[in-house]
Amino acid sequence: MATPRKDPATTPPPEPGPKFFREILGHDWVVSHLKSAMLAGRLAHAYLFLGPGGVGKAATARALAAALNCTQPGADGDACGTCPSCRRMQAGAHPDFLVISPIESKVQISIDQIRELRRLTEYPPLGGGWRVVVIKPAEALSVQNDAAANALLKTLEEPPPQHLLVLTARGEADLLPTIVSRCHKLAFAPLPSALIIQELENRRSLPRSQAALVAALSGGSLGRALALDPEELVRQRDQVLSDLAHLNRGSTGLVLEWAQRLAKNRADLENFLLLAQLWYRDLLLSHFQAPAGLLAHQDLMSLLEQARAGGAPATWFASFAALGTAQRHLQANLNPELTLDILGLRLQHQGNPHEPR
Ligand SMILES: [Zn+2]
């Protein structure tokens, strides 16, 4: 039997994620700013896209590259999606769109990568349009990585014609001021919960209750939301609610035992704090008659109602605050077990505010 011949003209499967401005979720202001700068011929030579991971910074850079290189752009400046340049962009194979990231397990972008970029920028873009280079994340050119950062600085100072650099970063704090000052900054906000819920329902066919839970823990990052395992999250959430119920009823010995157990695993510990905060947030939201659509515990409405009837807003505020304090103490590298001992005792006390101690 003859093996089917591989057709050299077959286009590779399209890259996941948005390719064009019209597909970017949220960030309306950033997109309209870039489109009008592009149409007016007033794009900066280098942009710094600031915002949390997974909200669409690199996708927006890709949409900008697609629009700049499209041969039949629409009246609003967005790429057509069908010309040869757009098809290459969709296939993730456009020769003039480059993403420079740390190689393999490295944390930093190497000086060699930047030298290679500088050599490449000596030549005009292959397609005759614009070469768009994304440096992702710009933190990989940190203060400890002076050589690579300084080499890039030369490109930022005298950008070659028809070249555009886009640096992405969570914030400015870890970037060299000399790099920041040479870029036009654009801020990407966390995506609204409602938008993430909608995407999870559409792309992952998640039931509303799971989508709401995942969205609430995603920190406004669609990338993070898509990476979370909803069933595992529900399991963890149920464990957290069971822990909270035990803490409220249990002895001091039980609190200390709980703290010792949870302190052993940093990821479990961080999830506990987030999920427990979510529970108290929902108790407060439902107490103050927020629309049920905003709640992350939509599959547990009767439990929520039961807890609401047996508690008081002041204690939920206090429990929420105690969880936030524990988060800050852990971020400041205080002893996790000690932090949890105190947190457990505070939660226990809030659960039984009228009991003598
Ligand atoms: Zn096109």
Q: What does this protein look like?
A:
The protein is of the alpha/beta class. It is elongated, with a radius of gyration of 25 Å. Helix content is 51%, strand content 7%. It has a five-stranded parallel β-sheet with strand order 2-3-4-1-5, with helices on one face. Helix 4 (111-120) links the parallel strand 2 (97-100) and strand 3. The protein has two domains: 21-187, Rossmann fold, CATH 3.40.50; 229-351, Zinc Finger, Delta Prime, domain 3 (Up-down Bundle). The chain has helices at residues 28-39, 57-69, 84-90, 111-120, 146-157, 177-180, 193-204, 208-217, 222-227, 230-249, 252-262, 266-287, 301-309, 313-331, 336-351; strands at 46-50, 97-100, 131-135, 163-169, 184-187. The structure holds zinc ion.
Structural class: alpha/beta
CATH topology-level name of the largest domain: Rossmann fold
Number of strands: 5
Radius of gyration: 25 Å
Overall mean pLDDT: 89
Strand order of the largest sheet: 2-3-4-1-5
Residue share in helix: 40-55%
Distance between the termini: 82 Å
Domains (count)? 2
Order of helices and strands: HEHHEHEHEHEHHHHHHHHH
Per CATH, the class of the largest domain reads Alpha Beta
